[in-house]
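// run 5 | inverse folding | seed 20
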């Protein structure tokens, strides 16, 4: 039984507590036989790296806690077997007494987890807080400090690591830091109709890999789409929507995430068969009114209409007080018929005055 580090990138909020806790534990204090003190600057045995992804306007920042992976077959140990040892619990330790002057250990680590302390003439790295574990601690300081459980130190046999990845640089070395939700690539874009200058909602977007694997989604209410956790590869995007000519384009995410920008769809059907802007607006208003009605019903609300309120006469522009209960209403100044206006105003005020019943 031995423990491994499990890092869930989706839970890491970049608070840096783990990084600070490591500094607090090791700066200014040696923990023999595992370490000499960590310098205040220049070394991060635990470091929260920031990975910027995408292009404006779709940009995402992922935080990646980074530390020695305590490999089963460590390259650092191969470089200086007399100065590096592996404990029974799997922690890899650079012996601070035997490693003096062994600068080659810095280059030996494929992920740059070893730092050189010029003042002490000593290579140094994460010890997994072996001194604390020896004294009854269940987890290292960094894990203890993590408020979101993004960082865990757990028995390997008690955690499902089937979806976890390890760092590619350490392939074959048996790294013992497992990452969940390690960021892959994303492909995002927006679909719009240039003729009416509107986004296209519900367009079908397909992402097809070179091997023919297909992922599919519909554009949302803003015409946006986003495929996340895509493997770094070349793909084809196909966009289709009723009444529009299909659009196809290649997209390469081997190096970077991609925001492909605005994809214009050309309408091919008879425009006259399409609802006009006014018809669409009426339909949307009717739908919104239905939603309001459902919401009011679900809130067990009552609608109150104020007895008196002011309206501005569209005929003369003068403001006058009126009463929603009145039947036919005319402007007291220019006699314009205000009946419809007052009814509309009363309805608007009624919605605004919706209150929840006790
Ligand atoms: S990550 Fe680097 S320093 Fe840590 S055990 Fe592996 S090779 Fe050694
Ligand atoms: S303490 Fe946890 S949440 Fe904060 S940066 Fe470190 S791993 Fe992420």
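// decoded
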């Amino acid at each position: 039984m031995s423990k491994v580090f499990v890092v869930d990138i989706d839970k890491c909020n970049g608070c840096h507590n783990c990084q600070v806790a490591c500094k607090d534990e090791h700066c200014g204090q040696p923990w023999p036989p595992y370490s000499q003190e960590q310098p205040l600057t220049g070394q991060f045995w635990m470091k929260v790296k920031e990975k910027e992804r995408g292009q404006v306007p779709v940009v995402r920042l992922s935080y990646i806690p980074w530390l020695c992976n305590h490999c089963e077959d460590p390259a650092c140990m191969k470089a200086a077997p007399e100065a590096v040892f592996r404990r029974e619990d799997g922690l890899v330790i650079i012996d601070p007494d035997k490693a003096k002057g062994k600068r080659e250990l810095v280059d030996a680590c494929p992920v740059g987890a070893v730092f050189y302390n010029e003042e002490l003439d000593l290579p140094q790295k994460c010890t997994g807080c072996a001194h604390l574990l020896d004294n009854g601690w269940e987890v290292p300081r960094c894990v203890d400090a993590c408020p979101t459980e993004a960082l865990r130190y757990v028995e390997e046999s008690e955690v499902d690591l089937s979806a976890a990845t390890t760092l590619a640089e350490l392939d074959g070395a048996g790294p013992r830091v497992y990452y969940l939700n390690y960021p892959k690539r994303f492909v995002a874009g927006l679909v719009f109709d240039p003729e009416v200058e509107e986004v296209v909602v519900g367009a079908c977007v397909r992402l097809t890999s070179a091997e023919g694997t297909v992922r599919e989604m519909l554009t949302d209410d803003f015409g946006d789409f986003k495929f996340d956790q895509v493997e770094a590869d070349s793909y084809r995007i196909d966009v289709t929507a009723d009444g529009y000519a299909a659009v196809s384009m290649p997209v390469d995410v081997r190096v970077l995430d991609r925001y492909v920008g605005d994809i214009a769809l050309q309408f091919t059907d008879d425009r006259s068969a399409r609802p006009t802007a006014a018809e669409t607006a009426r339909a949307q208003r009717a739908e919104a009114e239905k939603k309001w009605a459902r919401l009011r019903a679900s809130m067990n609300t009552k609608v109150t209409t104020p007895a008196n309120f002011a309206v501005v006469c569209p005929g003369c522009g003068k403001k006058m007080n009126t009463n929603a209960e009145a039947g036919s209403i005319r402007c007291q100044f220019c006699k314009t018929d205000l009946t419809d206006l007052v009814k509309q105003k009363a309805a608007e005020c009624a919605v605004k005055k919706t209150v929840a019943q006790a």
